[in-house]
Design goal:
By secondary structure, this protein is mostly helical. The chain is 49% helix and 0% strand. 0% of the residues are buried.
Length: 82
C-alpha cells in the first residue's frame, strides 16, 4: 500500500527551472557588458575633459632658477685651500 504509488514525473519543472536560471544568467551577463561599455565611455570622456586646453596667449619666457648661495660640499667637490 505504501510503496504502490509511482514517483511523480517532475521533468517539466526541472526544464522550466533551467530555462529560468539561464535567462537570469543571460540578463546578468548582458548587464555586465552594458555597464563595462558605459564605464569605458565615461573614462574616455573624463580623460578628454582632463586634457589641457590650448590658449592663444603669448608665452612668457621661462625664468632661470636663482642659484643658491650655499653649495653642498662633498668628498669630490672640495676645493683645496691655499
Amino acid at each position: 500500500m505504501f510503496f504502490q504509488e509511482p514517483t511523480p514525473d517532475t521533468s517539466g519543472y526541472m526544464i522550466a527551472g533551467y530555462v529560468v536560471a539561464f535567462i537570469v544568467m543571460g540578463l546578468y551577463v548582458a548587464s555586465l557588458y552594458l555597464r563595462n561599455r558605459n564605464l569605458n565611455r565615461d573614462m574616455a570622456m573624463l580623460e578628454e575633459m582632463d586634457k589641457p586646453t590650448v590658449t592663444m596667449e603669448p608665452k612668457q619666457p621661462k625664468k632661470k632658477p636663482a642659484k643658491s648661495a650655499t653649495k653642498s660640499v662633498t668628498k669630490w667637490g672640495r676645493k683645496k685651500q691655499p
